[in-house]
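In response to the reviewer comment on reproducibility (Comment 2.3), we provide here a single inverse folding case reported in full, input and output, so that an independent group could reproduce the run without further information from us. The structure tokens appear first.
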């Protein structure tokens, strides 16, 4: 996921290692505000300041460059329409976008160091056994 051309989240396809990857279903984007300050905010050390409510989130210049999956069309049909074949390739199948560049890897490290508050991959209290997708996390 990129915000202003800066990677903020990477979900690597590790199906070859037996880890499911959501490649055959539509993906959506949504926002929510929920109270998780007892566990998600640095283990509960940082509390939500509810005096700043109401909280408002908005998207500006939101552009999704992907294959559209209308709700009126069956999921299996949408998946077929958006799958690449030898004759039809999408931008996300190109080798240049299958991995982050060195610069993008550094940007992602900066985002994590300066903006990430919670990472379930490192939450041993909630997940004593490291989730499978986190074991091979290399970004």
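Designed residues, in position order:
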């Amino acid at each position: 996921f990129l915000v202003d051309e800066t990677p903020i989240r990477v979900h690597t396809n590790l199906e070859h290692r037996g880890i499911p990857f959501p490649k055959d279903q539509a993906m959506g984007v949504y926002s929510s505000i929920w109270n998780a300050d007892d566990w998600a905010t640095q283990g509960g050390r940082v509390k939500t300041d509810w005096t700043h409510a109401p909280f408002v989130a908005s998207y500006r210049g939101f552009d999704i460059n992907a294959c559209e999956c209308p709700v009126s069309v069956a999921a299996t049909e949408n998946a077929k329409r958006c799958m690449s074949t030898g004759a039809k390739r999408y931008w996300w199948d190109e080798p240049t976008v299958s991995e982050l560049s060195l610069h993008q890897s550094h940007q992602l490290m900066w985002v994590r160091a300066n903006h990430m508050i919670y990472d379930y991959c490192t939450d041993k209290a909630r997940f004593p056994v490291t989730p499978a997708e986190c074991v091979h996390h290399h970004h």
